[in-house]
Amino acid sequence: MLTIKPRAENVEGQPILRPLPSAKCRSVGPFVFFDHMLETDYAPGKGMDIRQHPHIGLSTLTYLFEGRLLHKDSLGSDQQVAPGEVSWMTSGAAIAHIERTPADLMASGSRMHGLQVWLASPKSHERGEGHYSHHPASSLPVADTPGIQIRMIAGTGFCLTSPVPVLSPTLYAELHMQTATTLQIPDEHEERALYVISGEASVDAEPLEARTLVVLERGQMVNLCAESECHAVLIGGAPLDGPRRMNWNFVASDTALIEQARTRWAGGDWPTVPGEIGRIELP
């Protein structure tokens, strides 16, 4: 197993842990970026406010444990996202979006905790149309066995299939395990990694450190054991169809696409989010 310790970052005032991308591991299946938005209490008048910014060559997936976010994008989407729901945005050749704490929670104060991941688009979709969809918690399939709950956030696994329109074979599951339970993780996906959000766990008797990403060996079924009450996610899927370049908010198989995107954003030649003026400039 490969263990990746995340680096601490701060995104517009929201503290995060970011294990992907890493020098040790650039991707796990289609996942090229993994942000754990840490538990954060916002006082009245404060909140998350990620201003208008661009993307190419990827899909973003936001999944919350606490709080609510408002998603708006250049397609005209305007959606509040609550805990247990999936906010899925595919960039295609060019999209812009914002994510912020809704006005009511901004006024009252709120608590934020969740995950945001980026999945690189297959080469065939890099220059396609953008897309947004919102998936209520009730639409995500769940498997309950004694002491273990598996919720399929996106993709397939454990005989579950999420309605989220992923573009390549994907595994993204949320795991809740009670103390002393064991879950066999099959090798149905070529690449897999575990991230323990809280609790103590081990894989084949090897302890896992909470809030680190552990990349599992290919082709091996492993046993995940909860040494205490445990909350984790399992990500993975088929390997990417070639290497990807990442620069700021852009992902592409060809550096020329990134340079074109940087030039367009800097020059204001980009789709805009209706009603939004503020934007994040190129670093």
UniProtKB/TrEMBL annotation:
Ranges where the Pirin N-terminal domain occurs: 21-119
> Which organism was this protein described from?
Pseudomonas folii
**Full protein name:** Pirin family protein
> Which segments constitute the Pirin C-terminal domain?
172-268
According to its UniProt record, which protein family does this protein belong to? Belongs to the pirin family.
The UniProt entry, under InterPro entries, shows: Pirin, Pirin_C_dom, Pirin_N_dom, RmlC-like_jellyroll, RmlC_Cupin_sf
